TrEMBL record:
One GO location term (cellular component): plasma membrane
GO-annotated molecular function: guanyl-nucleotide exchange factor activity
Pfam families, sorted: RA (PF00788), RasGEF (PF00617), RasGEF_N (PF00618)
All residue ranges annotated as the N-terminal Ras-GEF domain in the record: 68-198
CDD domains: RA_RalGDS_like (cd00153), RasGEF (cd00155), REM (cd06224)
Location of the Ras-GEF domain: 233-501
Organism of this sequence: Pomacea canaliculata (Golden apple snail)
Domain spans labelled Ras-associating: 583-677
Official protein name in the record: Ras-GEF domain-containing protein
Keywords: Guanine-nucleotide releasing factor
GO biological process, one term: Ras protein signal transduction
Source domain of life: Eukaryota
Length: 696
């Protein structure tokens, strides 16, 4: 009977709760300072190929067994450090990678190093008493972690002028583990960083007489003349922008993108300089697109200005072929900014085929279904040799097929530069939706596991950006840097000088102003909004994730206030929606208060906030989470939950499982409304329908 039971378990299908690797969740275990998720994993000792032969004859050896696995879910810093080693004392490499990539949101490098040193001393004292092989193995594991940390995260140890981390590491290694090379490596790192600091200081003292270069150029008749925009081919422009974007993207420090780091906008990007540099380049491109199109508002004809638009669209297509989604998005942002997009006469002079191309490029960053197009395209082409171009236009389709054949024949291999806003928004969503600290006061490490999925995608794309082989063109960058950019006000005035607003539009704006409506920088009724840049009067401010998660998740952004796009899908996800797995997803929820707006006489709607939705959450549970987010002390029974759809609202039933009741074919935007308010809205709608019937 026992034999039959084993055979049945070995050959039968696993339950729905099991994963494909034979692991299933068992229970949650709590200890002092830590919470663990416990899993049961089936380890097979008999291969499936031999199973059929073994089933026809008796056998007495062990076919498989169930092992218990513990994964830390939350804990104090010492307990998280303790989890770097498995129960056998071996290194948990997966956990170590997640830990080292995300720890800066809950500890400084010095605090972490001190925690590792304290743990090592504790194991050392226990080992002296018991001479346990387990303690020795755990000590080896900690030495390995220190070595990996020192080699992989150089920026954590750049704390001039005293370098406290490296000093502590050197002293600890020299005193406690003299047989390792950690002490000498830490010492050499300190000396190298000191030399770099002194050499950088010397460079800063040097004077740069750039005016002399300008004088020499004027005197030397044989010197090449500065480039102008008509002189520059679309391919050259795209290649140079890609060269700069790739260099900046490769230098992005992944943990600088974490919501808790990048979100510290009050520090002016001090904690995320690598991200700031990428965003500033994005802004520079967008603002120069606007500047070149609006230049000479008095005497440039619409047809000439249309050629400028056409050229930027052709440059955007070249960027698409180079798989540079960063500058591609930047150019589209500039072309779709209000001062440029409103120039109807200029746009009407652009050839139809170019307009089709512009529309297709814009569709890549469509806001529908949370930027699904750009997500799928990025995942599809992340490590592909060249882009998979497609078009609905027959002429463009024929050109794309010719290019594809040429790439195959020439063995072309292109790198990839993604739009960084993709990662910034996803990580900001996670940072907002999941708490840093649990109700027990422990560090929420489950949050950092999810953050690491996004960082892993970023690292993969950084390796793809290494493939480009483009030579620097100094004359191009002299032209690029010489372009005068304009403030928002200047751009608007120049645009109006080129094409004065019609009298009807002026009346509409005047009426809007009298009703208390403040026109946005973009006319949402006619202008698609894309972007990543924010332009102050001096255009020196960087784009930041907005204070409300609603703005950061949204696919649209104005010149005056920026946002990022949405995320890359994690490689192990079967879902098309970011942060939607088989058991969780992130939703955006707003709620209306009982207060009435003095202008509109409607209930005030709060800004969106993000929450994590589990597959076990029912309506009241979700409402309770929302009330907690908004710090509202009230009973969930007094509210109702509705999903916002393109054509109306979907009321989620009281006892429904929200995870399965929602419509996942659209953006996951919800609103929580008081039941009394919902009833009054229903009554008003019924009244309007009656009046409509009577009028008919």
């Amino acid at each position: 009977m026992g034999r039959q039971l084993n055979l049945q378990l070995a050959s039968g299908r696993m339950s729905k709760q099991d994963d494909q690797d034979g692991t299933r969740f068992w229970r949650e275990e709590r200890e002092e300072g830590a919470v663990y998720n416990t899993y049961l994993k089936r380890v097979t000792y008999l291969s499936p190929a031999r199973l059929e032969d073994e089933m026809v004859r008796e056998f007495s050896h062990l076919m498989w067994e169930t092992q218990k696995l513990r994964v830390i879910k939350a804990g104090t810093l010492p307990r998280l450090v303790e989890a770097l080693a498995t129960v056998r004392g071996e290194l948990d490499s997966s956990y170590m990678n997640i830990f080292l990539a995300t720890y800066r949101t809950f500890a400084t490098p010095l605090q972490l190093l001190q925690a590792i040193v304290d743990r090592y001393h504790l194991l050392r004292s226990q080992n002296k008493r018991g001479k346990s092989e387990l303690f020795e193995q755990q000590q080896k594991t900690l030495k390995c972690v220190l070595s990996v940390w020192l080699d992989t995260y150089h920026e954590d140890f750049r704390e001039s002028p005293n370098y406290p981390c490296l000093t502590l590491l050197e002293n600890f290694a020299r005193e406690v583990i003299p047989d390792s090379d950690l002490a000498s490596r830490a010492h050499n790192r300190i000396e190298r960083l000191k030399k770099e600091a002194s050499s950088n200081g010397a460079e800063n003292i040097q004077f740069r007489f750039s005016i002399c270069d300008e004088v020499d150029r004027m005197i030397d008749e044989e010197a090449p003349k500065p480039l102008t925009f008509p002189d520059i081919s679309p391919r050259l422009c795209a290649e140079q922008l890609t060269l700069r974007d790739a260099e900046l993207f490769k230098k992005v420090v992944p943990h600088h993108c974490l919501g808790a780091v990048w979100g510290r906008r009050d520090k002016g990007g001090k904690d995320a300089p690598s991200v700031q540099a990428t965003v500033e380049q994005f802004n520079r491109v967008s603002l120069r697109v606007i500047a070149t199109v609006l230049k000479h508002p008095d005497h440039l004809k619409s047809t000439s200005r249309a050629r400028l638009l056409q050229k930027w669209i052709n440059i955007a297509q070249e960027l698409r072929e180079l798989k540079n989604f960063s500058s591609l998005r930047a150019i589209l942002s500039g072309l779709q900014s209000h001062p440029v997009y409103r120039l109807r006469r200029c746009w009407s002079a652009v050839p139809k085929e170019t307009i089709v191309l512009f529309d297709e490029l814009s569709d890549i960053f469509s806001g529908e279904n949370n930027q699904l197009n750009s997500r799928e395209l990025l995942m599809k082409e992340a490590t592909a040799k060249f882009p998979d171009l497609d078009s609905q236009n027959k002429s463009l389709k024929r050109k794309n097929m010719q290019k594809r054949r040429s790439w195959i024949d020439n063995g072309t291999v292109q790198g990839t530069v993604p739009y960084l806003g993709t990662f910034l928004t996803d990580l900001t969503m996670l940072d907002t939706a999941m708490p840093d600290i649990t109700d027990d006061g422990l560090i929420n490490f489950e949050k950092h596991r999810k953050e690491f999925e996004v960082l892993a995608q970023l690292r993969l794309l950084q390796s793809a950006a290494q493939i480009y082989n483009i030579q620097y063109d100094n004359r191009f960058w002299e032209w690029f840097d010489s372009i005068r950019i304009y403030s928002d006000t200047e751009s608007h005035e120049m645009s109006c000088a080129i094409e004065p607003p019609s009298e009807s539009i002026a009346k509409i704006k005047k009426k809007s102003a009298s009703l208390g409506h403040k026109p946005s920088k973009f006319d949402s009724s006619s202008t698609p909004r894309l972007g990543f840049f924010c332009g102050g009067e001096e255009h020196n401010s960087i784009c930041s994730i907005p204070d409300t998660i609603a703005a950061s998740i949204g696919p649209l952004v104005t010149i005056s206030h920026s946002s990022s796009t949405s995320s890359v899908l994690s490689s192990d996800s079967d879902s098309q929606t970011p942060f939607r797995s088989s058991d969780t997803c992130v939703i955006r929820v707003s709620m209306t208060s009982g207060d009435l707006s003095p202008d509109t006489k409607t209930h005030v709607t709060h800004v969106y906030k993000s929450i994590m939705l589990n597959n076990t959450d029912h309506t009241n549970t979700v409402i309770e989470k929302v009330l907690e987010k908004y710090s509202i002390d009230d009973k969930p029974d007094n509210f109702c939950l509705l999903q916002i759809l393109p054509d109306g609202e979907l009321l989620i039933p009281e006892r429904a499982n929200v995870f399965y009741a929602l419509n996942n074919s659209v953006d996951l935007n919800f609103i929580v409304r008081r039941r009394s308010e919902q009833e009054s809205l229903k009554d008003r709608k019924k009244g309007r329908r009656r009046l409509k019937k009577l009028s008919l």
